[in-house]
Amino acid sequence: MTLAEKLALVVLVTCACAVVSTASPLDPDRYFLVEAEPRAQPEDYRLNDDVWPTHYDIEIKPYLEQEGNKAQFTFDGSAKITVSTQKQNVMQIKLHMARMDITAWSVTRKSDNTIIPTLPQTYDQETQILTLPLSSALQANVEYVLSFTYVGNMDDDMHGFYRSYYWEDGVKVWMGSTQFQQTHARRAFPCFDEPRFKATFQLKINHKTQYNVYSNTAIVGTAVAEVGRSLTTFGVTPSMSSYLIAFIVAPYQINDRDGMGILARPQAQNQTQYSLDVGIKLLKALEEWIDYPYASVAGMTRMYMAAVPDFSAGAMENWGLLTYRETNILYRSDDSTSMQQHRIAAVISHEIAHQWFGDLVTCEWWDVTWLNEGFARYYQYYGTALVETEWDLDHQFVVEQLQGVMQMDSLRSTHPMTHPVYTQAQTSGIFDNISYNKGAVMLRMMEHYLTTETFKTALRAYIKDRAFKTTRPEDLFNALNRYDPNARSYMEPWTVQPGYPLVTVTSHDTGFTITQKRFLVNEPDHNEQTAWPLPITFATKASEFSITRPAFYTGMTFEIPMQGASDVEYFILNNQQVGYYRVNYDAILWGKISKALHSEGFGGIHVLNRAQIVDDLFNLARGDVVPYGTALEILEYLKEETEYAPWLAAVNGLTTLSRRIHADDEKLFTAHILDIFSKAYDIVKFQAPTATERRIFTYMRQNVLQWACNYGHEECSKAAVAEFHRYHQNPSVKVHPDLRQVVYCEGIRKGSTEEFEFLWNQYLTTNVATEQILILQGLGCVSSSELITDMLNGIASPHVRSQDKNNAFTYVINNPYTLPHVSRYLQQNHANWAASHGSYTNVASAFNNVLARLKSDSERDAISAFIESNKNILGQAAYDSIKTGLEDYETNKQFTLRNRDEIHEFLDNKINGGAATILANVSMIVGLLMLVLAR
What we know:
- This protein is an alpha+beta fold.
- The protein is built from 30 helices and 30 strands.
- Among the domains are: 42-251, Immunoglobulin-like (Sandwich), CATH 2.60.40.1730; 362-496, Neutral Protease Domain 2 (Neutral Protease, domain 2, Orthogonal Bundle); 505-630, Immunoglobulin-like (Sandwich).
């Protein structure tokens, strides 16, 4: 039986056995949720504040195999919740529960165990609120105990207390783990499942003796529960929110030292040392920075970090028991790339930072998620930089976080950082780049305004003030205002208004006129009057780029006076891109900037401002603010660029542009790409990193080789294919991890079924999760219809875990050749895809990702005909989603047609007309921009 036949059989068997689930989990950093209108009033999704919990006693007894009449993947549970009220006439108690059967419940007065008479409970399936009516009112300031016994389910959707597995010597080993954020603690025990309801917890787990158990706090007792079972009791937790409880039931092993331990399956223990080493350093560094020792919190005597095979998020900050995808914590230097090591350190720093910003001090509700995630994302870079000092993380922050979130935040569909949410889908959706990236960007902006030392002092005070409490933005603003009375007025507008401004600079003899207007990439002519306090810095020569403490200006228009303004070499706004805005310049200033970029040493323009200019030009052209011809002429300077940050900004811009290039201009665009990457390729060379090169130079090599090979650079392709063939012939001698992505991709692109089956077998047999990701990236470069089908069958099969399916699909469709084949596959195998991915919502997402990259009207028409013929099967939500994708296809097509002539003229002149001189380039730029200013 061939590989294709095997995969097809696996898919059919999988789909035949599949049960319908509510939805497959999505990574909030990558995917938007498709949400129907709320089916209840918004306020009905929130608990009232009549009753507050103070302590939970919970006992969980999981069944990872059938035991008597106990079904596999269920658990028995009991919960006793101590509650009280400060109100009069409280006649009912509302709390959450989901996906469990409550077999008994009662309410008693704690002081004397008096039973409080109750009426039959009611349950709202939509809001997941359980209402317990009482026959007599609760007394104010008296403690009561809510007691529940229940049966829960260990589902496989990576939410609540769920089941996962790994393979050991060919045997599937089942385990249990948790993921409660945002609203899934209620699937493990009845609870007040909102972050404001903080309480202490004591957990007991009744488990088979062959399993080890772990939770937030240390084990304080173990007893024999029954034959073959132990009852393990954990210490009482600090007062914390329900979403932070965590527990694991698994035959794991631990690598521990100095109060920290890495938990992993036995076969992965050889991949835990780096995480342990860097985790210990990061915990110490962040403790010192925040000036609040982790161990000073009662119960936090150690920190465990666990590698979980199936995990919907990247990682989770459960107090004392942090959980991670294996790819985000397990590392081997001979099998993981430099970037994967970087990712592991950064994610660990992010989660450790949450021990203060999220666990100790917790956002009051998910409408201000940024108060948790913005800080964690900030320390993901600047905390890691305290330990890994040679990685230029400040450079990476600007392109990855600030410029990254600008894409989403330039759309009308964006939202403010502080934004109302009610439903489960809304609370999940708020965990997006606005809460993470933009939150971190605002913190960096305020750090540069206040100075680092003042910023640190203010945050230390904020943490001490709000410890063991919840927080709202005004609490943070008040802390900052103690050290600068303008801090709130400067920061708050950025948190409550969506989007960001485009700042336009016009020069005159005595200075510069600055105007601001919200940047909406698809609506350049809008009349919205939103304004922000603008953090302004500027440079007219190399030495001034180090001045990053801004002065804030308010108003739609203001002046920056300067004697001899017309004589400056250039005028560049927003030093090191500390402020969150784009900048457009008049023709004269763009001309000066271009001349400087094309001169020796780039005219002294700081590397982060070069990255800023690159990103701004691509997006100003995309937004019809600067002509594409002008932008591309200025960006020709990239042929001499040698730094990672500007190249990363360029790769981001070129990725978007490549999807909008007219099909008839693909050859010209290919020649353009090979030209601008030519010198960079000669600098980085197709070689493994040297011991002395900068880390970001290694990252730059990976980008340059990937683009060069993808666009047919002969030397790159030849070297990659030769290395793949060498590896194929002798798999015991591996490809250097930092070359694997391009080697695997090119080997598969230029290879046959033999190469595909070889690499797929490597995927199935490797013990290293980071290597699996590299292989999936390589397999996505398939270039024949048969192998595309094999790859898609593989993604739909159980061989690719649910957490990796969306990424694996993205790797395939980022290969433009595959798009028509993928479209036809989805039409023919939609039922299989829905079953393997969880719902038809995922089918819609797959079609929409294809439509976003397609350039073929005939393929568009085929998708349109398919959804009309299968509307009833797809369901209304999926059908409507794909209809929106078809509309977006048309918008993208019109964009391509509108800009085609200008882009074609630039490419044709460049490729077929010879290289122009710098002076001619500048003259063209000035001329074109004069036309822009005139129209």
